[in-house]
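Hey,

The postdoc asked me to send both predictions to you directly instead of through the lab channel. I've kept everything plain text so nothing gets mangled by the mail client. Protein one:
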Amino acid sequence: MLPFALTPQMHACLRIIQDLTDASGGVAPSLQMISGHLGLKSRSGAFRLVGLLVERGYVERLPNKARSIRLLHRLPPAGASKAMTSLVLALSAAVASGDGEVRITMPKVMIDGLAAELGLAGVSL
């Protein structure tokens, strides 16, 4: 878990960097590309957002090099947030037993559905 939360704009910037890097086979997007996808009027806004992501430890940049953004932490898949919310709710309902163990009782179909949404199909829980 990273120590600093992201604002919605920083989250959108990180998502764009991740998606464009993945789509290009590992080549980082330019500041112009980032600003265009975010709907910013200039590259300076993208530069500022990338700088904030660097400060928070989500990406790093190599000095004096174009397209040098490297992801240090990846965001979960876009559809995973609903599944993660369901999983957190299920875990928050866990009850400690008398022997100190925490047991969670969930229908198998619910576990399989959560695993599929999180991209963990075939994982046995």
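Protein two:
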Amino acid sequence: MRVALTRVTPADARAWRRALAGEPLAPKTQAERLWNLKAFFRWLERHSRILVDPFAEIEVTEPRKALPVYLSEAEVNTLLDRTPTAEPTALRDRAVLETLYGSALRVGELVRLDLGDVDLSRGLVNVRHGKGKKDRVVPMGRIAARLTARYIQTARLAAPSGAHALFLNDYGHRITGDAIRKAILAPALERAGIEKHVTPHVLRHSCAVHLLENGASVREVQVLLGHAKINTTQLYLAVVPLALQAVHRATHPAEHAPTPESANPTKCIPQHNFKKPRPVDVSEPEEE
């Protein structure tokens, strides 16, 4: 049933919002649809197409950003160590996994790498046309650089269609993201006995978390990941506060300085002064 825009009431707006909440849609999708409709009716009111904006009092709840899913250092080590390097295909697989983790690359960034994009002697990767069409140069990692060099020298078979591509499939064509997920990562997870839902992007998350755990700054990790906004990178801090606290205690000069006598408390702070932490959504976020 069609309804004239001038006849839409606040009651209709509230009813539409309730109906939207009942749809099997992600919170982010629901919020986007509601924002779009609010913006449309706001435009109608500003241009005198309607007298009253029926969505003016409808609030949009911004969905909470989910914490990134990641593997522990032990899990990553097991994943990599159980990926053999003796056979040509296995050598390529290990080099791919090491590069994804070592450089925190998006899978799309890795498949687009050409031979000229890596400086193996210096251990650098030139990421061309990353998210937002931005380029960046990032470290490759010692092991990733050595394995990639060995792969190029001994195992990489060039074909006309993949003459410039760094990583090739068994037919000499540029490897695809789907092949990395199904033919490289899935078997590696099975060998490592890891039953979590792990995508190539999880290796990127893992790299970021491990860097922060070992003392890297948020700004440094932001540059590595190629995030446009530091707020995106700060999301990783939510999963490593205890590890960062341990690093701070071990490395910050003030932690090793003698404590002034006057700084010693005379009585304990009551426990009830501290607020309980709020629960955190740990579902997997969209790729950044």
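Summary for protein two, as requested: Residues 27-46 form the longest helix (20 residues).

Thanks,
C.
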